[in-house]
Protein backbone atom coordinates (compact mmCIF):
# COMPACT_ATOMS: atom_id res chain seq x y z
CA UNK A 1 0.00 0.00 0.00
CA UNK A 2 1.01 3.62 -0.57
CA UNK A 3 0.45 5.30 2.79
CA UNK A 4 0.80 9.01 3.41
CA UNK A 5 1.12 10.39 6.93
CA UNK A 6 0.22 14.07 6.89
CA UNK A 7 1.80 15.82 9.92
CA UNK A 8 4.66 14.17 11.80
CA UNK A 9 4.03 15.29 15.37
CA UNK A 10 3.12 13.32 18.50
CA UNK A 11 0.64 10.90 16.89
CA UNK A 12 1.75 11.10 13.23
CA UNK A 13 5.32 10.42 14.32
CA UNK A 14 4.42 7.41 16.47
CA UNK A 15 2.00 5.65 14.07
CA UNK A 16 3.85 6.81 10.94
CA UNK A 17 7.09 5.56 12.47
CA UNK A 18 5.60 2.11 13.15
CA UNK A 19 4.28 1.95 9.56
CA UNK A 20 7.66 3.00 8.17
CA UNK A 21 9.13 -0.20 9.66
CA UNK A 22 6.95 -2.32 7.31
CA UNK A 23 7.40 -3.06 3.58
CA UNK A 24 4.60 -0.65 2.62
CA UNK A 25 5.51 2.55 0.77
CA UNK A 26 5.41 5.27 3.41
CA UNK A 27 5.49 9.03 2.78
CA UNK A 28 5.76 11.62 5.56
CA UNK A 29 4.51 15.17 5.02
CA UNK A 30 6.39 17.37 7.47
CA UNK A 31 7.62 20.93 7.52
CA UNK A 32 10.20 23.27 9.07
CA UNK A 33 12.83 21.82 11.40
CA UNK A 34 10.97 18.51 11.65
CA UNK A 35 11.18 18.04 7.86
CA UNK A 36 14.88 18.90 7.72
CA UNK A 37 15.79 16.63 10.65
CA UNK A 38 13.87 13.61 9.26
CA UNK A 39 15.30 14.14 5.77
CA UNK A 40 18.81 14.18 7.22
CA UNK A 41 18.66 11.48 9.89
CA UNK A 42 15.30 9.68 9.71
CA UNK A 43 12.82 9.71 12.60
CA UNK A 44 13.69 8.48 16.08
CA UNK A 45 10.77 7.32 18.25
CA UNK A 46 11.49 7.04 21.96
CA UNK A 47 8.80 4.81 23.42
CA UNK A 48 8.01 3.19 26.75
CA UNK A 49 7.46 0.05 24.64
CA UNK A 50 10.96 0.26 23.11
CA UNK A 51 12.76 2.94 21.10
CA UNK A 52 13.10 2.63 17.34
CA UNK A 53 14.52 4.49 14.36
CA UNK A 54 12.95 4.59 10.91
CA UNK A 55 13.46 6.03 7.46
CA UNK A 56 10.27 6.47 5.40
CA UNK A 57 10.43 6.05 1.62
CA UNK A 58 9.79 9.77 1.13
CA UNK A 59 9.77 12.81 3.45
CA UNK A 60 8.65 16.05 1.87
CA UNK A 61 6.54 19.17 2.12
CA UNK A 62 5.81 19.04 -1.61
CA UNK A 63 2.68 17.05 -2.43
CA UNK A 64 3.56 17.06 -6.16
CA UNK A 65 6.28 14.48 -5.39
CA UNK A 66 3.84 12.14 -3.64
CA UNK A 67 2.45 9.01 -5.37
CA UNK A 68 -1.34 8.63 -5.32
CA UNK A 69 -2.01 7.25 -1.82
CA UNK A 70 -4.20 4.27 -0.94
CA UNK A 71 -4.47 5.62 2.58
CA UNK A 72 -3.82 9.04 4.12
CA UNK A 73 -3.52 9.25 7.91
CA UNK A 74 -4.07 12.77 9.19
CA UNK A 75 -1.63 13.61 12.00
CA UNK A 76 -2.23 17.38 12.21
CA UNK A 77 -4.22 19.21 14.92
CA UNK A 78 -7.97 19.44 14.37
CA UNK A 79 -7.77 23.18 13.54
CA UNK A 80 -5.21 22.36 10.79
CA UNK A 81 -7.39 19.66 9.25
CA UNK A 82 -9.43 21.70 6.77
CA UNK A 83 -6.33 23.22 5.23
CA UNK A 84 -4.63 19.78 5.11
CA UNK A 85 -7.72 18.33 3.37
CA UNK A 86 -7.55 21.08 0.75
CA UNK A 87 -3.85 20.30 0.16
CA UNK A 88 -4.27 16.55 -0.32
CA UNK A 89 -7.52 16.58 -2.34
CA UNK A 90 -5.75 16.99 -5.73
CA UNK A 91 -3.47 13.95 -5.24
CA UNK A 92 -6.23 11.53 -4.19
CA UNK A 93 -7.40 8.80 -6.57
CA UNK A 94 -10.88 7.27 -6.71
CA UNK A 95 -9.94 4.56 -4.19
CA UNK A 96 -7.84 6.65 -1.81
CA UNK A 97 -9.06 6.70 1.78
CA UNK A 98 -8.48 9.37 4.41
CA UNK A 99 -8.38 8.56 8.12
CA UNK A 100 -8.49 11.41 10.67
CA UNK A 101 -7.11 10.58 14.14
CA UNK A 102 -7.73 13.95 15.81
CA UNK A 103 -9.62 14.38 19.04
CA UNK A 104 -13.09 15.83 18.45
CA UNK A 105 -16.26 14.61 16.78
CA UNK A 106 -16.48 16.74 13.65
CA UNK A 107 -13.21 15.80 11.93
CA UNK A 108 -14.79 13.68 9.13
CA UNK A 109 -17.14 16.61 8.40
CA UNK A 110 -14.15 18.97 8.12
CA UNK A 111 -12.51 16.59 5.61
CA UNK A 112 -15.69 16.39 3.56
CA UNK A 113 -15.40 20.08 2.70
CA UNK A 114 -12.75 19.04 0.13
CA UNK A 115 -12.91 15.23 -0.06
CA UNK A 116 -15.69 12.94 -1.26
CA UNK A 117 -17.65 11.45 1.68
CA UNK A 118 -17.07 7.93 0.27
CA UNK A 119 -13.32 8.37 0.81
CA UNK A 120 -13.54 9.55 4.41
CA UNK A 121 -13.18 7.21 7.41
CA UNK A 122 -13.52 8.00 11.09
CA UNK A 123 -11.07 7.27 13.88
CA UNK A 124 -9.11 8.33 16.94
CA UNK A 125 -6.16 7.15 18.98
CA UNK A 126 -5.03 6.75 22.55
CA UNK A 127 -1.47 7.34 23.64
CA UNK A 128 0.55 10.26 24.99
CA UNK A 129 3.31 11.42 22.68
CA UNK A 130 4.96 14.66 21.60
CA UNK A 131 7.83 16.07 19.54
CA UNK A 132 10.78 16.07 21.92
CA UNK A 133 13.12 17.79 19.44
CA UNK A 134 13.30 17.96 15.62
CA UNK A 135 13.35 14.39 14.32
CA UNK A 136 12.56 12.87 17.73
CA UNK A 137 9.07 11.86 18.91
CA UNK A 138 8.56 10.62 22.45
CA UNK A 139 5.73 8.23 23.43
CA UNK A 140 5.66 8.31 27.22
CA UNK A 141 2.30 6.95 28.40
CA UNK A 142 -0.56 4.53 27.52
CA UNK A 143 -0.33 1.49 25.25
CA UNK A 144 -1.02 3.05 21.82
CA UNK A 145 -4.32 2.03 20.22
CA UNK A 146 -5.94 3.17 17.04
CA UNK A 147 -9.73 2.89 16.73
CA UNK A 148 -11.22 3.32 13.26
CA UNK A 149 -14.18 2.44 11.04
CA UNK A 150 -16.31 3.32 8.07
CA UNK A 151 -18.68 6.22 8.78
CA UNK A 152 -21.62 3.81 8.46
CA UNK A 153 -19.85 1.18 10.64
CA UNK A 154 -19.81 -1.55 7.96
CA UNK A 155 -16.91 -3.96 8.30
CA UNK A 156 -15.91 -3.47 4.66
CA UNK A 157 -13.09 -5.16 2.76
CA UNK A 158 -11.19 -1.88 2.66
CA UNK A 159 -11.39 -1.56 6.46
CA UNK A 160 -10.13 -5.14 6.83
CA UNK A 161 -7.22 -4.40 4.46
CA UNK A 162 -6.15 -1.37 6.49
CA UNK A 163 -6.52 -3.37 9.69
CA UNK A 164 -4.17 -6.02 8.27
CA UNK A 165 -1.59 -3.29 7.57
CA UNK A 166 -1.87 -2.04 11.16
CA UNK A 167 -1.30 -5.58 12.40
CA UNK A 168 1.80 -5.90 10.20
CA UNK A 169 3.06 -2.66 11.78
CA UNK A 170 2.37 -4.02 15.28
CA UNK A 171 -0.19 -1.27 15.92
CA UNK A 172 -3.06 -2.32 18.19
CA UNK A 173 -6.18 -1.45 16.22
CA UNK A 174 -9.85 -1.65 17.17
CA UNK A 175 -12.82 -1.69 14.79
CA UNK A 176 -15.75 -0.83 17.05
CA UNK A 177 -19.42 -1.68 16.48
CA UNK A 178 -20.34 2.01 16.61
CA UNK A 179 -17.51 4.45 15.83
CA UNK A 180 -19.69 7.48 16.65
CA UNK A 181 -20.39 6.23 20.17
CA UNK A 182 -16.67 5.51 20.77
CA UNK A 183 -15.63 8.87 19.35
CA UNK A 184 -18.11 10.69 21.61
CA UNK A 185 -16.96 8.67 24.67
CA UNK A 186 -13.41 9.90 24.15
CA UNK A 187 -14.69 13.40 23.35
CA UNK A 188 -16.69 13.39 26.60
CA UNK A 189 -13.54 12.59 28.57
CA UNK A 190 -11.19 15.00 26.84
CA UNK A 191 -13.67 17.90 26.72
CA UNK A 192 -14.56 17.46 30.38
CA UNK A 193 -10.95 17.88 31.53
CA UNK A 194 -9.09 19.98 28.93
CA UNK A 195 -10.52 23.52 29.09
CA UNK A 196 -11.05 23.42 32.84
CA UNK A 197 -7.43 22.27 33.22
CA UNK A 198 -6.33 25.10 30.91
CA UNK A 199 -8.27 27.65 32.94
CA UNK A 200 -7.14 26.40 36.37
CA UNK A 201 -3.61 25.64 35.11
CA UNK A 202 -2.98 22.69 37.46
CA UNK A 203 -2.79 18.93 36.79
CA UNK A 204 -5.69 16.53 37.31
CA UNK A 205 -4.68 15.64 40.91
CA UNK A 206 -5.35 19.22 42.04
CA UNK A 207 -8.51 19.59 39.90
CA UNK A 208 -10.18 16.53 41.39
CA UNK A 209 -9.27 17.49 44.99
CA UNK A 210 -11.60 20.51 44.79
CA UNK A 211 -15.28 19.63 45.23
CA UNK A 212 -16.23 22.88 43.46
CA UNK A 213 -14.11 22.05 40.38
CA UNK A 214 -15.34 18.46 40.47
CA UNK A 215 -18.90 19.64 40.26
CA UNK A 216 -17.99 22.02 37.40
CA UNK A 217 -16.46 19.04 35.55
CA UNK A 218 -19.67 17.04 36.18
CA UNK A 219 -21.79 19.88 34.77
CA UNK A 220 -19.49 20.11 31.72
CA UNK A 221 -19.98 16.38 31.11
CA UNK A 222 -23.78 16.48 31.58
CA UNK A 223 -24.06 19.36 29.11
CA UNK A 224 -22.03 17.35 26.55
CA UNK A 225 -24.39 14.42 27.11
CA UNK A 226 -27.41 16.66 26.46
CA UNK A 227 -25.92 17.81 23.13
CA UNK A 228 -25.09 14.21 22.15
CA UNK A 229 -28.68 13.20 22.89
CA UNK A 230 -30.05 16.07 20.81
CA UNK A 231 -27.82 14.84 17.96
CA UNK A 232 -29.11 11.29 18.52
CA UNK A 233 -25.68 9.95 19.41
CA UNK A 234 -25.69 6.91 21.66
CA UNK A 235 -23.87 8.49 24.61
CA UNK A 236 -25.16 7.42 28.02
CA UNK A 237 -25.23 8.59 31.65
CA UNK A 238 -23.11 5.53 32.53
CA UNK A 239 -20.38 6.91 30.21
CA UNK A 240 -20.11 9.94 32.50
CA UNK A 241 -19.51 7.61 35.46
CA UNK A 242 -16.75 5.84 33.49
CA UNK A 243 -15.15 9.21 32.67
CA UNK A 244 -15.08 10.11 36.38
CA UNK A 245 -13.65 6.70 37.24
CA UNK A 246 -10.87 7.36 34.68
CA UNK A 247 -10.31 10.84 36.13
CA UNK A 248 -9.93 9.40 39.63
CA UNK A 249 -7.53 6.68 38.35
CA UNK A 250 -5.27 9.12 36.44
CA UNK A 251 -1.78 9.87 37.68
CA UNK A 252 -2.19 13.12 39.72
CA UNK A 253 0.34 14.91 37.49
CA UNK A 254 -1.63 14.16 34.25
CA UNK A 255 -2.63 16.95 31.88
CA UNK A 256 -4.41 16.60 28.52
CA UNK A 257 -2.63 17.82 25.36
CA UNK A 258 -5.11 20.67 24.83
CA UNK A 259 -4.63 21.80 28.43
CA UNK A 260 -0.87 21.84 27.83
CA UNK A 261 -1.33 23.90 24.63
CA UNK A 262 -3.59 26.37 26.47
CA UNK A 263 -1.10 26.71 29.30
CA UNK A 264 1.80 27.19 26.86
CA UNK A 265 -0.10 29.95 25.00
CA UNK A 266 -0.17 27.85 21.80
CA UNK A 267 -3.19 27.56 19.47
CA UNK A 268 -5.34 24.84 21.02
CA UNK A 269 -8.32 22.60 20.21
CA UNK A 270 -10.69 24.74 22.34
CA UNK A 271 -12.85 25.43 19.28
CA UNK A 272 -13.14 21.68 18.50
CA UNK A 273 -14.02 20.81 22.11
CA UNK A 274 -16.10 23.24 24.20
CA UNK A 275 -16.53 25.60 21.21
CA UNK A 276 -18.19 22.77 19.29
CA UNK A 277 -20.53 22.03 22.21
CA UNK A 278 -21.51 25.71 22.53
CA UNK A 279 -22.29 25.98 18.79
CA UNK A 280 -24.21 22.71 18.60
CA UNK A 281 -26.17 23.58 21.76
CA UNK A 282 -27.28 26.86 20.13
CA UNK A 283 -28.41 24.99 17.01
CA UNK A 284 -30.46 22.58 19.13
CA UNK A 285 -31.83 25.22 21.57
CA UNK A 286 -30.02 23.74 24.59
CA UNK A 287 -28.38 25.71 27.46
CA UNK A 288 -24.75 24.80 28.19
CA UNK A 289 -23.67 27.53 30.65
CA UNK A 290 -20.55 25.80 31.97
CA UNK A 291 -19.16 24.95 28.52
CA UNK A 292 -20.02 28.50 27.43
CA UNK A 293 -18.18 29.98 30.43
CA UNK A 294 -15.08 27.83 29.80
CA UNK A 295 -15.12 28.64 26.09
CA UNK A 296 -15.65 32.39 26.47
CA UNK A 297 -13.06 32.73 29.25
CA UNK A 298 -10.38 30.99 27.20
CA UNK A 299 -11.29 32.50 23.84
CA UNK A 300 -9.38 35.83 24.17
CA UNK A 301 -6.16 33.94 24.96
CA UNK A 302 -6.85 31.51 22.09
CA UNK A 303 -7.32 34.41 19.65
CA UNK A 304 -4.04 35.94 20.82
CA UNK A 305 -2.08 32.71 20.33
CA UNK A 306 -3.68 32.20 16.90
CA UNK A 307 -2.67 35.67 15.72
CA UNK A 308 0.89 35.11 16.99
CA UNK A 309 1.03 31.65 15.32
CA UNK A 310 -0.01 33.02 11.93
CA UNK A 311 2.62 35.85 11.98
N1 LIG B 1 -0.17 13.85 21.23
C1 LIG B 1 -0.99 13.03 21.86
O1 LIG B 1 -0.58 12.39 22.84
C2 LIG B 1 -2.38 12.82 21.38
C3 LIG B 1 -2.94 13.66 20.44
N2 LIG B 1 -4.20 13.39 19.98
C4 LIG B 1 -4.80 14.23 18.97
O2 LIG B 1 -4.06 14.08 17.76
C5 LIG B 1 -4.05 15.29 17.00
C6 LIG B 1 -2.61 15.67 16.70
O3 LIG B 1 -1.96 15.97 17.93
P1 LIG B 1 -0.38 15.95 18.09
O4 LIG B 1 0.21 14.81 17.34
O5 LIG B 1 -0.10 16.09 19.53
O6 LIG B 1 -0.01 17.33 17.34
P2 LIG B 1 1.44 17.90 16.97
O7 LIG B 1 1.32 19.38 16.96
O8 LIG B 1 2.49 17.25 17.79
O9 LIG B 1 1.63 17.37 15.48
C7 LIG B 1 1.04 17.94 14.35
C8 LIG B 1 2.15 18.06 13.32
O10 LIG B 1 1.57 18.33 12.05
C9 LIG B 1 2.37 19.34 11.46
N3 LIG B 1 1.64 20.04 10.41
C10 LIG B 1 0.54 20.79 10.50
N4 LIG B 1 0.18 21.29 9.30
C11 LIG B 1 1.14 20.86 8.43
C12 LIG B 1 1.35 21.06 7.04
N5 LIG B 1 0.53 21.79 6.30
N6 LIG B 1 2.44 20.48 6.47
C13 LIG B 1 3.29 19.74 7.18
N7 LIG B 1 3.14 19.50 8.51
C14 LIG B 1 2.07 20.07 9.12
C15 LIG B 1 2.71 20.26 12.61
O11 LIG B 1 3.74 21.16 12.26
P3 LIG B 1 3.76 22.64 12.94
O12 LIG B 1 4.21 22.41 14.36
O13 LIG B 1 4.74 23.36 12.10
O14 LIG B 1 2.36 23.20 12.88
C16 LIG B 1 3.11 19.22 13.65
O15 LIG B 1 4.43 18.78 13.46
C17 LIG B 1 -4.80 16.29 17.86
O16 LIG B 1 -6.15 16.31 17.46
C18 LIG B 1 -4.74 15.73 19.28
O17 LIG B 1 -5.83 16.12 20.08
C19 LIG B 1 -4.92 12.30 20.38
C20 LIG B 1 -4.38 11.43 21.29
C21 LIG B 1 -3.11 11.66 21.90
C1 LIG C 1 -6.03 12.03 27.05
C2 LIG C 1 -5.21 11.60 25.88
C3 LIG C 1 -3.76 11.51 26.26
C4 LIG C 1 -5.64 10.20 25.46
O1 LIG C 1 -5.10 9.77 24.28
C5 LIG C 1 -5.39 12.58 24.75
O2 LIG C 1 -6.07 12.30 23.79
C6 LIG C 1 -4.81 13.94 24.79
O3 LIG C 1 -4.12 14.30 25.74
O4 LIG C 1 -5.06 14.68 23.83
Automatic annotation (TrEMBL):
Enzyme nomenclature, EC number? 1.1.1.169
Instruction: State the reactions this protein catalyses.
Output: (R)-pantoate + NADP(+) = 2-dehydropantoate + NADPH + H(+)
Q: Name one GO molecular function term.
A: 2-dehydropantoate 2-reductase activity
For this record, the Gene Ontology CC terms, alphabetical, are: cytoplasm
Top enzyme category: oxidoreductase
> What domain of life?
Bacteria
SUPFAM superfamilies named in the record: 6-phosphogluconate dehydrogenase C-terminal domain-like, NAD(P)-binding Rossmann-fold domains
Similarity comment text for this entry: Belongs to the ketopantoate reductase family.
**Protein name in the entry:** 2-dehydropantoate 2-reductase
Species for this entry = Galbibacter marinus
Give the organism's phylogenetic lineage. Bacteria, Pseudomonadati, Bacteroidota, Flavobacteriia, Flavobacteriales
Amino acid sequence: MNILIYGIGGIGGYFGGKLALTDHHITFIARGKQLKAIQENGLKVKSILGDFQCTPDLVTDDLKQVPCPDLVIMGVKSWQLTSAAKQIAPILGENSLVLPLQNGVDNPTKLMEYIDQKQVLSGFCNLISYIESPGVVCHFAFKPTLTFAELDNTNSTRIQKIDAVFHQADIKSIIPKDIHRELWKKFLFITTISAIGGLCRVPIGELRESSYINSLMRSTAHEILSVAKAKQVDLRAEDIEKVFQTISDLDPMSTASTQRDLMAGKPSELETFNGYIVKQAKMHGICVPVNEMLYQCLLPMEKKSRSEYSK
